[in-house]
Amino acid sequence: MDELPYTIDDLKNAVLQRKILWTEHSYEKMLERQIRRREVLECILNGEIIEEYFSDKPSPSCLIFGITANARNMHVCCAYSDDMVYIITAYEPNLFKWNNDFKTRRRSD
Hints:
By secondary structure, the chain is an alpha+beta fold.
């Protein structure tokens, strides 16, 4: 399988239609990291898929990079199934693991 069974547009449409399921893990991590739901949704609506995880179960997931209205760099891991977007986690990428564009991982040599 070389591509996800959904596109960034599918994710954006689900967000616009409020077809969103937040995992308990996502709530815990967002609270811990002081990330608001609005910021997660802004990331998806303004973002792009930067990594794809085809083997994730029960549905393939992806990592989105986006910038919030407050210029906060954000990564959101989510999946899409049955016209719903499933929010798995969200965090601010750091330069220890990511290059300056926050879209490509640093190589660990």
